[in-house]
Each structure stands twice: as C-alpha cells, then as structure tokens.
Design goal:
- The protein is α+β, with helices and mostly antiparallel strands and 392 residues long.
- It contains 13 helices and 12 strands.
- The strands form 2 sheets. Strands 1, 2, 3, 4, 5, 8, 9, 10, 11 and 12 form a 10-stranded mixed beta sheet that branches. It has a two-stranded antiparallel ribbon with strand order 6-7.
- α2 (66-73) links the parallel β3 (50-54) and β4 (82-85).
- α1 (26-41) packs across α2 (66-73), α3 crosses α13 and α10 (292-303) packs across α11 (321-330).
- The longest helix has 21 residues, at 170-190.
- Residues 5-261 form the Thiolase N-terminal domain.
- Residues 270-391 form the Thiolase C-terminal domain.
- This is Acetyl-CoA C-acetyltransferase.
C-alpha cells in the first residue's frame, strides 16, 4: 500500500466572534486556504483530485456542500470535486483521514483535506436549534431517548464530569488556561506561526476590503493574568469550568495537501510529514469528551508505540479538563503538550480545528527538530480521532 504524505499546510489566524474575519463569507475564507496550499506546494490546480472539508454548522452560508462552494470560490478548476464532512469537532481531522486513505489506496494521488467554520455567521448549535424552532423537535430521537432515558447530552456537563472524575479542581483548570495563553503569546511573538498562517485582508461587514491584513490569532489575551482568569464566572453553579477555561468561539479555515508517492513525483517536492497512524473511536456519549483517552491508548497499541515515543502532542482544548485528564491517564509529559498554546487561547473554529491543529503540529515538529507528533480531540457524541505523523 502507498504512503500518505503532507506536503503543504495552511491556516488563517483565528478571528473572534464578530472580529477580524467576520466580514468573510466562509466559502471565500476556505478558498483562501485552498489557494495557499496550491501556491505553497507548486501543484497544478487541475491535479487536485478532491477537496474534503470539515464543517460542523452546515446551514445558512455553510450549507449546500460548503466544500464545493469553496472550490468554486477558489482558483481550482471546476473539474475538482469536493465533499463536506461532519464528525463534529473532529470534522477536518476526519477529512485528513479520508484524504490519506484515498491516496494510500491509490484511487487518488493528490487531495486537499481542509476545514472551515464561521462561528460569527453560523453560530454554534444553529443546526440543532432550527428544527426545534420549526416544531420538528431536536436531534435526540425517540430511539436515543429509549437507550439513554432522561439524559441531556451536553458537552458542558461532560466537561464537569471529567473534572470531577479526575480530581481536577478549579484552580488547576485556571492555571492550565493561563499557561495556554502564555504559550500562545510566546509562540506568536517568536514568529512560530508565521509559516502556517495565510494572511487575509480584514473585511467590513458588507465584505469590503480594508487594506489591513489579519495575521495574528485574535483570541490570544496578551494581557492575561491568572487572577483575571480565576475571576470569570463559572458556567454552572457549583461547577469548576468557566468561559476562561473553555475553548474560544472562533472564525477560521485550515487545510493540508496530502499526496502519495506518485503525487510526490509529480510535484517534485520534499514532504513535510508522513501519516504514520490513523484511527477513530466511539465512547460514552454522556461524558462525551473523554474519548481521546482510550482512543490514544488504542492508537498507540495499534501503532506499536509508547507514549514516550511521541515528541509532541496536540490535544484540543475544548475545555481544560480534557487535556489535563488526558495527561493524567496517559502519564504523558506536559512539556510536550500543546507547546504553542491551544484552543483556550487560539480559538476553536469547530470544523476547521482538525487540520488547524495538524498544521501547527507539523510546523512545530519542524521548528523543534522532532520526529513524531500525535493529535487527538474530543468530539460531540463521544468520539475521538487520533493521528500520528512522522516529520520527514
């Protein structure tokens, strides 16, 4: 079987809700990343055989196959097809898995895996709320209710359950959130994100250009203090999590170009990384966010590796209890985790986060001269993807 290689990575800097990316239609924003991947790799646009794009809120401006719409807004020819993926927060990580599986099978030689989410234009939970408003009920079916009687599926509840189950007190969550900002501040100031970020022009609400470029993740609180984080109101009375210890609402797009050996030969470039392992796992949908723990254990076993073999980890910071519980369960080195900060500081643009994290992971491995990186994230419904890459 052929190998799958990453030859180019790209992401926009994150935009806050109503912030510097709010003027962008999500299809146009995703097109900026697609064009950047083609430019950075030197690929013939017509040689791209598919665009697989993660997006969670596939309604409104992100409806009608956002992936295809992004292709039509890009410089790719009409001959390039596209499809949209929803595996909740892991949508574009799954897009990467699908793209890698395609080139490994030989059915394609060159595919783009990407993700996009405008949480300004399509607010979180919009797909859940619209049918309920129309009197059609919510997404929880009678069959689900019969299997899980009286259960309200909630990521917020799941985060609190993890904090309680792993003995994570509020002060530990606050400290972790502060450290996420500190790492992101250091990375931003050192230029660690420069090679991965695609500069895009800041647009007004009506889409007009301002002439100013967006190049710095807008969510980073450069003036963050532990005291300030600790003072933020708790999400639930008597709980441990607050908005300051949760991922930030974010607009953004990201992507990677994936090829096999034939694709490499056609491009004539050196790959950045090789896909070493891919897997996905379902887990308890009630606690919901715990899946990365057993999924990572299983992935390492299938890959014949130990946690100590991995040089850098990207574990999505949906809520601070998730990476902290992951560290505890895996007995992993915290110095290797989210070394450039995570979603608490940088934002979590839902469907775009998978290839966003991979973009940061591949670049961090290169900058630090490290070999193996592992990425995982919790996903709605109690799932987790795990991807292990080897820097080349």
């Amino acid at each position: 079987m052929a190998e799958a290689y990453i030859v180019a990575t790209a992401r926009t800097a994150g935009g806050k809700r109503g912030g510097k990316l709010a003027g962008w239609h999500p299809a146009d924003l995703a097109a900026q990343v697609i064009d950047a991947l083609v430019a950075r790799s030197g690929a013939d646009p017509a040689a791209i055989e598919d665009v697989i794009m993660g997006c969670v809120g596939q309604v409104g401006q992100q409806a009608s196959n956002i992936a295809r719409n992004a292709v039509l807004a890009s410089r790719l020819p009409e001959s390039v097809p596209a499809t949209s993926v929803d595996r909740q927060c892991g949508s574009s990580q799954q897009a990467l898995h699908f793209a890698a599986q395609a080139v490994m099978s030989g059915t394609m030689d060159m595919a783009i895996a990407a993700g996009v989410e405008s949480m300004t234009r399509v607010p979180m939970f919009t797909p859940n709320v619209l049918p309920a408003k129309a009197g059609l009920g919510g997404y929880v079916s009678p069959g689900m209710q019969a299997r899980y009687p009286g259960i309200e599926f909630s990521q917020f509840t799941g985060a609190e359950m993890i904090a309680k189950n792993y003995g994570l007190q509020k002060d530990a969550l606050d400290r972790y959130a502060f450290e996420s900002h500190q790492r992101a501040i250091a990375a931003s100031r050192a230029g660690a994100f420069n090679d991965e970020i695609v500069p895009v022009e800041i647009r007004t609400a009506d889409g007009a250009g301002t002439g100013e470029m967006h190049t710095v993740d807008e969510g980073i609180r450069f003036d963050a203090t532990l005291e300030g984080i600790a003072s933020v109101k708790l999400i639930a009375e008597g709980g441990r999590c607050s908005a300051a210890t949760a991922s930030q609402i974010c607009d953004g797009a990201s992507g990677v170009l994936v090829v096999n050996e034939r694709g490499l030969k056609a491009l004539g470039v050196k790959p950045l990384a090789r896909i070493h392992h891919m897997s996905v796992m379902g887990h308890d949908p009630v606690i919901m966010l715990e899946a990365p723990l057993p999924a990572t254990e299983r992935a390492l076993k299938k890959a014949g590796m130990s946690i100590d073999d991995i040089d850098l980890f990207e574990v999505n910071e949906a809520f601070a209890p998730v990476p902290l519980a992951w560290l505890q369960a895996l007995k992993a080195d915290p110095a290797k985790l989210n070394v450039n900060g995570g979603a608490i500081a940088l934002g979590h643009p839902l469907g775009a986060s998978g290839t966003k994290l991979m973009t940061t992971l591949v670049n961090a491995l290169g900058q630090r001269g490290k070999r193996y990186g592992l990425q995982t994230m919790c996903e709605g419904g109690g799932m987790a993807n795990v991807t292990i890459v080897e820097r080349l």
